[in-house]
Amino acid sequence: MDSKSAISILKSGSIDIYPAYIVEGNDRYLIFRILQIIKSSVLDPDFAEFNYTKLECDGSTKLREITNVLLEQPMLADRRLSELHQTGAVKYKAPDGPKTSKERLSLTGELESIVSENLEQGANIICIVNCGQKSDGKDLLKSLIKDRALTVNCTVYADDIPKWLAQEAQSRGYSLNIRAASELCERVGTDLAKLSSQLGKLCAYAGENKSLTLEDVKAIAEKSLEIKVWDFTSAVSRRNASLALRCCAQILQDNDTADALSLLAYTNTYLRSLAQTKALVKRLGGNPALIAGSLSGKGKKKTQYQISKDIENSALWSEKALKQAFLDLCQTDMYLKTGASPLLTVQKLAMRLACRPS
Hints:
Number of domains: 3
Shape: globular
Structural class: alpha/beta
Order of helices and strands: EHEHEHEHEHEHEHHEHHHHHHHH
Largest sheet: 6 strands, parallel
CATH architecture of the largest domain: 3-Layer(aba) Sandwich
CATH topology of the largest domain: Rossmann fold
Distance between the termini: 56 Å
């Protein structure tokens, strides 16, 4: 089984022809770009519409639906592409399927035979796409193709994003230095779709000046909501009341209740993470690796760096202060839902959190 990172494929702009592909990871934008490259590489452009099938799978998808897709033959071309999404969700022995074990084995055996034939002939290219999904080893189709497939990793790692931005800028005819790329990440976050959109604005702003600078980024790229919320939670943790109030004003510039409730939800998630980390530090000590192991399988996976930051921030809160913060959040939620001024109410919360007792 061969494997490549999505970033390296985007850099080359092409992909080798394989009888099967496994595209998986957590970034939908990367997955979208990779699927575009696979389609353009595999399919004859004149007959692409006739030779492309996409099947969205879930727990109700039947084996027969999958085998029907894989049985299709190319039309007026050498190859067709069968793109199957979220195959890890398929229950290959669903209760609404065949009634007997013999019938179930017959269908799975038929799938194995069809897949084997496709892999040998290479006429119906199989591409399975699993976005942010863990199949826990129960994805039958993936297990049947993995030894002959190219696996493309579409997971985003923070350290790779500035390089990816520089690469994207170059593909558009511009240069972007690492300082400017890092500043763009600081303002926009790690969402590649948003970063690509901001990069397009930067290129339009620069015009004939083909060098994108730090000053250009500061002039054009507005901080995303995610980054503004990070600034807010960091400010209240470090008891920086003035910065927390400025963050509130930026996030709630339209004085909208929905924005205020979103900020409350983000803050609640942040404080819950700190409370959980604080409890684990008390039990396991301050080793990020041990805490990461304890958190495995519980929600979105965190890197050891993120856990280290959580440990650092949790030390800024006492257990009593965290309990009071949750009470303050509940009270603020009630005020917002009963017509109180969104900005003023959230700023009062910011002051209570940032000015908590030591």
